Fold this sequence. Notes:
Elements lengths: L1 H26 L6 H10 E8 L4 E6 L3 E2 L8 E6 L3 E2 L4 E3 L4 E10 L9 E10 L5 E9 L4 H38 L3 H20 L6 E2 L4 E6 L3 E6 L14 E12 L5 E12 L5 E2 L3 E5 L4 E2 L13 E2 L4 E9 L7 E7 L4 E7 H5 L4 H11 L15
Antiparallel strand pairs: 1-12, 2-4, 2-11, 3-10, 4-7, 5-6, 7-8, 8-9, 9-11, 13-14, 14-19, 15-18, 16-17, 16-20, 20-21
Helix pairs in contact: 3-4
Amino acid sequence: MRRGIALIILSFFMLQNVVFASGDVFQGHAEFNDEYVELDKELFTGKTEVLEKRDTIEMTVSQVLDGNFSFEGDEFFAEITSDVYGDKGVIIPKGTLAHGFITDSGEAKRFGRDGYLDLSFDKLITPEGREIPIEGKMSTKLHPIKAAAKIAATDIGYTAVGGVVGGMVAAQALGLEAAIASNGYTLAGGAAIGSAVGLGMSLYRKGKDVLISPGDEIKVKILSNVQLPVYKEEALVQKEEKYPGLDVRISNILYEKDPFGEVNTITLSVCISNMSDKSFAGMDLALVSDYNTVHNPSIFGDTRLLFSQFKPGDRKAGKISFSVDNVKHSYWLVVNDRSKNKPLVKVSLDNAYKNVAENVKKRNDKVKHRKKNYYKEKDVFDI
């Protein structure tokens, strides 16, 4: 009897757990939730596209991944830096996060063997909160044949340089007369010694360690087909804030290098018409990122707008530059109200970029897509 009652109670609790678990699963799918059904109608065209196997997606990591300190199983997030298009429209919007984890890593070793990182990705998280299962992979490893060829070529370089240096030292120490009298054997001997020294250097030489930093672009290869809905164009328009009478328009956007060669400067061509009841200065302009970081105007660009005053009735146009963390993030140009310490206006750079001339977009793509080998810079004190 007691056993029967216990089984009934146990069955009741198991049934409750199944119901609760099913509710959790159903909540994440649009077909089981009216709210998600309405959201789908607002966001998507009703058409679908396939993200195909072997397609690549460009991303940038959100944290430092170091071959010396990152280990198998470590998790991280990366951000998709540009809209991913299919034939019918955008299927993955800019700002989508990718969840990744390290599957293998190794530090640099002697004999010129470089460090490496192997990364895998299992899902995407879109700005509206949808989770999309994927299979993606990225590795900094060279193909074994390429890696061996790279090491061999470098080692030959060390040996050849050693031979040249050894011959020069012998010529300077013993003189050309000794070289002639010995039919060149002194030079040959010096070169042999130099080559041996060069070979020793090549054997002792350590490879490079891997470092992927925030802002570094990685290309992730998709390993299986994924069917995705197509977004409506209007669903991808970023939200902005307006103030009556204050019109701020961005006519051009340039990505530029700083004096050290880093692509971290955004220069805007702006037209401001102030028919409002507010006064402000160029110093009240700022860029705010999707991570809520604030970037003030740079003094290294055109400073005419920066040091201007905007009183009611003023209309001014010009350029203004901002030094940012990563030009691939989303930004809003804001006009701050000092009296209330909040923005009067927020203008989306992503929205404005859609109207930028195609030749400017091509030029920006060349600037921001710099070649990256993911290796740490050589420490001058490292032997």
